[in-house]
Amino acid sequence: MTVGTSALIEQTADANRGGRPTHVAIIMDGNGRWARSRGLPRTEGHRRGVQTVRDIIRHAGQRGIGYLTLFSFSSENWSRPAEEVHDLLMLLRMFIRKDLADLHRAGIRVRVIGERRSLPADIAALIAEAETMTAGNDRMTLVVAFNYGSRGEIAEAVRSLAAEVAAGRLDAGSIDEKTVARHLMTAGIPDPDLIIRTSGEQRLSNFLLWQAAYSEFAFVPTLWPDFKPEDFDRVLDDFRARDRRFGGLSAKAGA
Ligand code: IPE
Ligand code: IPE
Ligand code: MG
User: Fold this and answer.
1) Which residues approach ligand 1 with their CB closer than 6 A?
2) Domains along the chain?
3) 223 CA to middle of ligand 2, Å?
4) Does the global pTM surpass 0.70?
């Protein structure tokens, strides 16, 4: 109990820097509906969504966000028609090829979370290149969740912990919340202070289940291709007014 509490406090210690979130995670949803409402193919919505990605990365950097996580492809998205999956993989390729140099120049570190073994080899290589090239950058960390699913991530952590115990390298009784967190794909990344989902849906869709224990949520009706830096600022303003208690008593009321 004590261990868990201290781990939580550590993970969220600098979370509320003047009401500014350290880590913002976004479930970028609504590309398909954006396209359909205009009589366009879904791919066009995804293409426009990439432009929003560029705008929001730049803006988050300007707002001093330390970590920006973008959910771009879930482990469940493989169940979409093959053509759409193909287009989404193509867009990731194009994004890394076209934008990596700009991100690097802007001092952004890129990290990708998600299962890589089942990705085409050229994409895995592009991801590795992006991470290696930007490893020394510290202006902002961009975490791209691609082929990511939180239950799969937790199952993988359990598998690797079990293997360490079986090999005699880890005492099962010593496993605490920090040990688990270190075995997740997000190891070393603070928990998200704020999770935004666009398009009006109000669910996590298997995103950061462990990490979201004390996240604030913002569900906005705007479809992702229409989401603007001003919308991001509005969510930040709303976040600033929230009272995060982490199970304790209100810091504001006590003041
Ligand atoms: C989000 O938009 C992008 C991905 C999930 C890859 P959607 O494609 O889910 O758009 P909607 O929800 O169908 O409108
Ligand atoms: C979640 O959106 C995944 C991404 C944004 C990449 P989905 O559109 O796949 O989620 P559901 O199916 O509506 O829950
Ligand atoms: Mg969707």
Assistant:
1) 28-33, 73, 77, 88, 199
2) 5-238 (3.40.1180.10)
3) 12
4) yes
